[in-house]
Structure of DUF3817 domain-containing protein:
Amino acid sequence: MPLEPRESDLPRIAGALKFYQIASIITGAMLLALCAEMVMKYAFGLELELGGAYGFLAFVPTGTAQAVNLSTGILIAHGWFYVLYLFSNFRLWSMMRWEFPRLLLLASGGIVPGLSFFLETRIAREVRTYLAARAERTASASSASPSSNSVEASH
């Protein structure tokens, strides 16, 4: 039987979901940029240079960048955003009290190109559906219980 989120975590889940969604989109975009950069570097022998002799933004042969090497910058930025993405995964996973394989699936979104966009949509829909159902259950349970202000007559 799967565990349900704790009552104390319910108010924080929406914020954790928003953080996850933002981290997922940024990490996914950075991963796609990294893949494009790797193709340019290893298939065509080019790196992206910012502010060099060839202009503001130019592809130069690998190892000849004189100014800011954006290829390395993309690599580093994706690495740091992936760490942030893993933190957002762990936070949402622990609040929702999902099983461990779900955490592994979420983490793979930052290493499989395009997967983070698919997971972001699917997970957001699932969490929102769960929160709405939980709120509905809570509301129906509180309306079904007798009010403390009513007086019960018995004979």
User: Anything to note?
Assistant: The helical segments are 10-44, 70-96, 100-108, 115-144. The chain has a mean pLDDT of 90.
